[in-house]
Amino acid sequence: MKTELLPRPTPVTKPAASFISPDRAAYKWWVAATVMLGAFLVVISTATVNVALPQMMTVFGMNLDEVQWVITAYMIASAVLIPTVGWLGNRLGNRNLLLFSLLIFIGGSALCGLAWSGGMLIVFRIVQGIGGGPIFPMAMVFLNEVFPLQQRGLAMGLFGLAAAFGPAVGPVIGGYLTDYLNWRFVFYMNLLPGVVCMGLVFLVIAPTREAQRRSLDLPGLITLATFLVSLLIALSQGHRQGWDSPYIQRLLVVAVVSFLTFLAIELWREEPLVELRLYGNVAFAILSVVILINAMNFWGTGFTQTILLQRAMDYTPARAGFAILPGALVMAVTTLGAGRLADLIDRRIIILFGLGLFVLSSYWFSYVTLDTPMHSIIWMIVGRYFSISFIFTPINAASLLTLPPEKARMGSGLIGIMQQGLGGTTGIAVLATFLERRTSYHAAMLEQQQVLSPLPWTDILTPAHQLLVQAGDVGGMVQVKSFGLLQRHLVQEATLTAYQDCFLLMTALCVVTMPLALFMRRRPSRVSSAATTGDDRKKPGTSAP
Question: Using one digit for the tens of pLDDT, what is the confidence trace for 499-524?
């Protein structure tokens, strides 16, 4: 179906309703500050909740599988809402959609803080996820609208700043609130900034409404929700339940059937819930694949990195958080520079530079040992986070520039589901499963090596034997404890080698994506006359047809 550019409709409200005049040069910075605060709230909420999970387990008597649903429930709820921002924005208007999302997110945060049981906490996390899902893609939409074409990279740099600063300070803030106050304050901390953000949205952003209303694609919504829920549950639970378990296999079958049904419905309808025809744009489709794989790399290696520090290297949560903090702060700062650079030179060069750095830093991580000092670990993390800035920012800017202006909101929703939903969940699931299997493999190989060639292990047994004797152990107890220490050493070595394999896997996956960046256009252009003038910024108070 060919897209035609129609005359802009009459504004629903006057631009003068906003707090600052849209005609002023500072207006875009007011909008940027407003939507960045909302995006920051969503990101930091996710980072702080992870730190508070052990205390939730103690308070509500939840086991590890149960408390995992505190994360999974939020993730699924937000993922289901992200692709619907196109229809919701059409029905409510962009400003109203952001206001309602913030209101639900704040209300869900308050309810999570008041939760009286583990089950109700999970239910309230679903409410919070429903509100948080649309906030991230809508932030991209508003930045895309108010910044001119030649500053679109800078706009995505600002977006990346909000996305990166949350993981940087989230673990530190969450750890402090949990240790010195209560885990409930992890949710209460969202209330005041959330109310401030709603006030700014109401005062700064003028309300708009599209002239043509779209009908609700209910069959598409049902099949999409079924697909996402079943797939994300399978991905998040597969490594624990076993991928060959009937429960996981049934979920995967439901996901495949619902996805095929969803494709048939969306391609058949004239007004689909999700415009899959956008993937007919080759540049957008290729960038979507790169975004998906990059999200798998980022979230997967982040998960592996955190578990490696705390479980294999015995870092405390606070020490692990401070080890990650410098890298996250570097990422937060460099996203602005990378965004501005993307406006000046070929984006393909920047993306290839970022991917190359990510390959080197991930490969460097594959050499980590139990004796690696903390300052080396910090530099490894800094290298990874620094490289992400040169991937995340230009790709997000380029992806929306491949679409007509009136498709930007739908495109941002599709990008959001790649980054926050499928990419993150798939990356964590793949690496969790790969880590478990490689650990078992290396443990079996080391045990076999011990049986076939016991002499090399005397370097470990002899000092252990002497240490136990000095501690007062005698007779057969020394022998038993010595072999126990040897087995512990074997498990540590097998686990560490498995972590190294995980980083090698992500390194290879990143290398595969590098040629895809070459298919990008040097300067993606809008399908509109505004693209030729270098300023496609829509005046607030107007809307695309």
Answer: 888 889 888 888 888 888 777 655 54
Provide the phi-psi class of 82: left if phi over 0, else alpha when psi is between -120 and 50, else beta: alpha
Task: Tell me the C-alpha distance between 458 and 192, whole Å.
Answer: 61
Asked, for residue 5, whether it belongs to a domain, the answer is: no
Residues 6+ apart with CB under 8 A from 444: none
In 3D space, the residue among 523, 514, 160, 519 whose CA is nearest the CA of residue 352 turns out to be 514
pLDDT band at 538 (very low <50, low <70, confident <90, very high): very low
Residue 61 lies in a domain: yes
pLDDT digits (tens, 9 = 90+) for 235-251: 777 777 777 888 888 99
Closest listed residue to residue 538, CA positions, set 141, 164, 90, 146: 146
Expressed as residue numbers, the domain containing 310 is 15-216+273-443+492-533
At 149-179, the pLDDT tens digits run 777 677 777 777 777 677 667 777 777 787 7
Say how many domains are in the chain. Answer: 1
Beta-carbon contacts of 473 under 8 Å, excluding residues fewer than 6 positions away, are 481
448 falls within a domain: no
**How far apart are alpha carbons 288 and 398 in whole angstroms?**
10
CATH number at residue 61: 1.20.1250.20
What's this model's pTM, rounded to 2 decimal places? 0.70
Q: Is the model's pLDDT at 66 over the cut of 80?
A: no
Tell whether 259 is covered by a domain: no
HEC profile of 149-196 = HHHHHHHHHHHHHHHHHHHHHHHHHHHHHHHHCCCCHHHHCCHHHHHH
